[in-house]
Structure formats: structure tokens, C-alpha cells
Amino acid sequence: MKILIEEYRYDASLVRKYLHDIDELDVVEGFVSVSYVGYYYNNSSEVNDCVFILPKVLIDEQGKVFGKYTPESIIDLDKQKLLTDDEHKFIYEFAVWIYRAIAVFKNSQKDTSIVRHKQVVKVGKGKKRLANTYLDILLSLIQFNRENQDFFMFILKNIHSGFNKINWSRTISRSNVVVQNEEPIYINPVNKKRQINFDEELLVIYFSILNYISDKFGFTISINCNYDLIKGKRFEHYLEKFGVVRLHQIKYKYFSDKALQLWELCYAFFEQSHQVKVNSSLNEYLLVKNFNIVFEAIIDELVGDKQLPDRLNKKQEDGKIVDHLFMWDSLTTADASKKVYYIGDSKYYKIGNEVGKESVAKQYTYARNVIQWNLNLFLDSEEQPNKDDYKLRDEVTEGYNIIPNFFISAKMDEKLSYVDTIDKTDRKKNQHFQRHFNNRLFDRDTLLITHYDVNFLFVVSLYARNNASQKQTWKTKVRNLFRKEIQQILADKYDFYAMTAKQGIDGQQFLSENFKDVIGKVYTPFADNQVYSLALDKDKQFAQENEKIYNLLDSHFHIVKCDIGQDPTTLLNGKRASSISLPNTARNGVLMVMMESYASKSIKFLENGKLAVGIKWTKDSMEIVENLKSIGYVLFHHRNDNEQHLFAIKGTCSVKDKSEIEEDRYKSVTTTEMYVVVDLDTTSELDSTNIHSSQKEYTPKTRYDAQYAMLEDLKKNNNDYS
User: Fold this and answer.
1) Which residue from 497, 416, 127, 111 is spatially nearest to 289, judged by alpha carbons?
2) Closest CA to 349 of 243, 505, 454, 197
3) Could you write out the DSSP letters of every residue in 206-226?
4) Handedness of CA 53, 38, 19, 44 (dihedral sign)
5) Which residues are registered as beta bridge partners of 614?
6) Is 419 exposed, middle or buried (0-12, 13-18, 19+ CB in 10 A)?
7) Which end of the chain is more exposed for a tag (fewer CB within 10 A), N or C?
8) C-alpha torsion sign, points 541, 544, 545, 549
9) Strands 431-434 vs 447-455: parallel, antiparallel or unpaired
10) pLDDT for residue 406
11) Residue 638: its pLDDT value, please?
């Protein structure tokens, strides 16, 4: 087996003989590089061996394979003494995965002009090759299955002939007999027992190998066998040399050419270095030129969408073609129904190479083109949007949703493992940021590109295996990872808030009147279009600008910290002013509950409205108990006019012992034995603008105690008496 590396500069004299009849080589100053990846058998008298051309990602930044070998030193894989057993085994298996990936690409792509294919290895009676590759053996095993179904049927028929025939001597001597019509009838006949059949064992081993090949590498193999196959740990035991041992033990049982040939193939699989007879009269090859196109197809199959929204095409109007395009959950909201376009570009570089400025500029252009396409979709009267179309531009704020944009490049796992890994690239620059205006995240010209490295071995093996379920599982996983990672990058750079207009404020009108101050900073990504997202750049240079914007908005909006992608509903529950007037009720008593950290505590009771307010044997508590039937409201406060939250109650209040309180009812304190039980109407928060909790007197000792007041008294301001 000979090993060459794609695009590596070899001395022409070293490799010319290995590439006979494949392509004309362009020799430049005595050096030559090969632009193919794949498999080739050279049957020339000078070589008579197979040649694998492996992807350039096998070479590190120093131009070494496995970090220590020059590509020239390992050309002759079987004669060199440098590689360890594990490295040697890796090359053998890696070559199979590359072969499988090219084969899947060839069978799944409409345009396969970059693929060169000629019938591969064929088992025959010819001479043994100098050395067989792992791929030779696998393909030979598969081919034997295709071409020898009659042989299998013949063996199985012979194996089962006579099976279940009655052993009359044993039946007569051991079985009970019944005489009917003067004829003996034996109730429990004894069947003949079949001895262990070594032909059958060979078939079990053979079909178990095929099953392993199918599961691991994704080869399509028809296994017409009803035997319990050797699988899992048992098969691993066979791989660990027991297969060789067992085949040696049963070899003497076989005499026919077919059976011996099958034994040879099974033995070669377990022993791997064993030579098998194959017909090598013709050169065989499966090669692909420009493997970057295959890598692009691999990534698109694993992360992209085959079905795109109507009228959206990877081939854009300016002629540029997007590598990967799909719809997935928006970055700016937790609402799964809100989608956005994700734009990706796969980069098949040598390890250590950086993304060029041209590639970055193209990604920006792709995003702008998608934005413009989306604008045209909603602005052009000739093209009416569908229900599944998602608008990127918000008419209220004139802000634009964030379009995730990313690069994916190939990287070899340092331990040569096929483990599933994808991380932000460790290249010099793993993100690119472009903007037309500073501090305007929700602007059509603010564009972010992130860069990830994926384990080349993993994605090639996943693609080559061609298992739809496995691919879909990874697709979902990696899409969610992209979303989460990009959200984190933005969270590191921006402070995010959710805000809604205060009582009596027309939020839309305010934003329109202050358009120049808020453009690009505010957007409405949420299901409730009365809730806005505010993003402010954390950079110190914008501190003064951000303070001005925040104060301007804070005077007209309730504003809470809200991470990008977080649902703001709960955070704003206690903030939003209801337009509903206070209900007409004879119960105008107010249960005043002192509650600091309302935002975090209210989450525990606002959903079900169940509250238990602790009371003590004090004057204030007795006043509450005496007026239970008149309590119609609950006011959460902390002794000033800010951060007050007013709710009506359902039914009437009651007093219960601590032991009587339900588990799902939130206790305002846990240090008392008696509680006022309240059921809140949390469908809407009432307007507390004219409520003044500070009107209720208290002492330092009773500062945190619940109190009772009349609604009219809390509406009176001290200024009313001046």
C-alpha cells in the first residue's frame, strides 16, 4: 500500500511511477502535487500495488503527518519502519472512510464530474497482490456476498437436509405407543440430532463480519441469514485475534474452492496483513478532484437544509452561491416558532491556514443578499409572503433581526479519534465583526461571523455511514450549539434588556418620536409586540451614550435585564402596568406585603396565584384578621412609591396554621406559625401609579410586617394635605 497526500509538493521522481495513467502531472521546478483524493490500483510491473491519496488535513502546520513524519518517508506504508502499530492501523481504516465518503458523494450528487471511477477490486483466481489493503479485503467480502448467493443456498440446504427426521430406533425404545386401527402411533417421536456443522459456523462468522462492516462503515449489504450473528463484545473478542485462532481451528474441514476462498477472506479480515487472490488485470480507481467540493457536500448534508423557503435560493442574484443555508431558532427570542436564516461557509484548508479577507467579505455579502431578498418578499406586491416566511425587519422600531453567520473548517483530532467535537477555531481570529454604525446591534449593516473547527474524522465517518437518523441527531445538536455559542458571543459584547411601556404611555409613538436615539438599539423579537429588546454595547467608550439612552427610556418604559433569547414574560410580570382600571368592589381593603427582591420571589407564586402571608401576634396583624372579609387587593411594596405591584384577589382571605398550608402555596416568610391565605388574580397587574405605600405608618420593629390599609387612604398623597 502506497500513501500520498493531496496537494503536498513531492519530488517528481518519487511519485511519477505511482500515478501512471491517472493524470498528466504538472512538474514545477522538479516538484509535483496531486490534486486528487481517493483510491487507485496501479498494476504496472514497477508498482503492482494500491495507492491511496489522502486529504491534506492529515498534514499539520509543520508539514508533518502525525506531527513527526514527512509525507515522503511514509509513501511505502508496508516497507517503512517508522509508523507505530496504531498509526499504521489508523491509515488503513482512514483510507476506507475516505473511500466510503467519495462513494456516498458519487451516489447522492447530481453533478459528479469531479469523480473518476473505474470498477474496483474483484475477487478472482489471479495472483496474490504484493499487499492487500483493508479496503481490498472489505470490498472482496462484500463482492463475494453479491456473487455467491447460490453457494450459500446450497450449503444451507445441505445443512438442514435430514434435520427433524425421526430416529426410529430411539423412538421405538423410548416413546410411548398407542395402537389405533391396528397400527402403532408414537406420541413423542425422537428426532435425529444434528452434529455441529463447520460450514455453518463459517457462514455465521462471515455474515457477522458483513454485519460489522455494514454497521461501522455504512456499506449497503444484503444479509440473507437467519442465524444469531456474533455482535457486540463477542465480536470485539474475535477482532482481538480470537477470529484468527478460531479460523485456524476449523480450516481443515474445508475442501471446496468456494469454501476455501470464503475462509481466506474471513481470515484476511481478522489478520489484515494476509494476502488474498484478486483479479488485477485492470487499473481500478475511485478518485475525486477538488476534495473541497466533497467536504462542502459533507457539511451541507450534516447541517444544511435541502428544502429552502420558496424563492430563496443558494444561488443568489449576483451569481454568488451560498455553501450552507438553513432556517433555525432565532437568537433573540425563546419562542421556537420564530425562525431566522443561518448562513454558513465550509473551509477545506490545510491546518493552520487562516480565512482570507475575500472569504469574509463574501459572507457579509451573502447576509446582505438574504436581508434584501427578505425585504423584497414583504415589500414587493407581486410576491406575497407565505405563512412560513419570517420577517427580518421590524416596522415599529425599524430594527433588523440578527442573522447568524459562520465558517466551518476541518481539523484532525490530535489523538486520531473519531470523537464528535466541534469548537470555536483556535486560529488567530475566530470571529469577524462588521458594522456601519457603532452601538447598533439591530442594524442591517451590523454583521457577525463566527468560526468553528469540526473533527474531520467524525464528519467524514458520519457522512460515509449514511445513516439518516444519526445525521439528523447531529444536525439538531450542532444547530443548537451554533445558536448557543453565538448568543454567548453577543452576551459578552452587549447588555440585553426587555422593556414595555408604562401605564398611559404609547410605546410605539415614543419610539417613533425618539427614532434617532433608539434606532438599531431596539427591536421587537417577542410574541408580544408590546415588549421590546434593548441591546447596548458594553465597551467603555459607549458608557455615556448608554446612560443617556437608558435614562430616556426608563422614564417611559419598565426595563429589566433579560438575556438574549430569554423569555421576558416572567421578568416583566410585576413590571407591566395594566390598562385595566380597578374593579368595582365593596372590598376596598388592601393587604400590604413588604417584599424585597420581588422579581425573583414573584416567579414562585405568580403562575398559580397561591400566596400565604405570615402574621404575628401584633397590632398590625390583629387589624388584618379583623378586616379579612373586606380585603380585595394585595399590594407588594418596599416602603416607597417605586417597585409597587397591585393585584386583586379571588374569593375571600382566611387564616390558617402553618401545618395546614398546601405545598404549592408560596409563604412570604417561613418564621411564623400563622398565615393569611390569599388567592391572587394574576391575569393582569393593576395600575399602582397613584398608590403610596409610604402612607402607612410603621416602626423599625414592624418594617417587614404585613399590614392592612384602605385603598382610599393609600391613594392620598402627603401633598394633598398641604
Assistant:
1) 111
2) 454
3) HHHHHHHHHHHH---------
4) positive
5) 675
6) exposed
7) C
8) positive
9) antiparallel
10) 93
11) 85
- As beta bridge partners, residue 269 has none
Residue 166 is placed in which grid cell? 425421526
C-alpha 685/C-alpha 682 separation (Å) is 7
Stretch 284-292: mean pLDDT: 84
Three-class SS string for 257-280? Answer: HHHHHHHHHHHHHHHCCCCCEEEC
> Of all helices (H) and strands (E), which one includes residue 712?
helix 711-715
pLDDT digits (tens, 9 = 90+) for 110-165: 777 888 776 544 555 555 444 457 777 888 888 888 888 888 877 776 665 555 56
- pLDDT tens digits for range 580-612: 445 545 688 999 999 988 877 888 898 889 999
Contact present, 447 and 403 (Cβ < 8 Å): yes
The H-assigned helical ranges of 447-587 are: 456-465, 468-493, 507-513, 515-518, 543-554, 569-573
Query: pLDDT digits over 686-698, tens only?
Result: 888 788 898 899 9
User: 689-707 burial by CB neighbour count: b if 16+ within 10 A, else e?
Assistant: eebbbeebebeeebebbbb
3-state secondary structure of 501: strand
Written as one string, the DSSP assignment of 590-601 is: EEEEE-SSHHHH
- Pairwise CA distance, residues 535 & 561, whole Å: 10
pLDDT (tens digit per residue) in 314-345:
777 766 778 899 999 999 998 888 899 999 99
Q: CA–CA separation, 85 vs 133, rounded Å?
A: 15
How long, in residues, is the chain? Answer: 722
CA atoms lying within 13 Å on the CB side of residue 290: 7
Rounded to 5°, the CA angle 91-97-103 comes to 135
In this predicted structure, what is the pLDDT of residue 585? Answer: 54
Cβ burial 194-227 (10 Å sphere, 16+ → b, else e): eeeeebbbbbebbbbbbbbbbebbbbebeeebee
**Closest listed residue to residue 218, CA positions, set 469, 396, 29:** 469
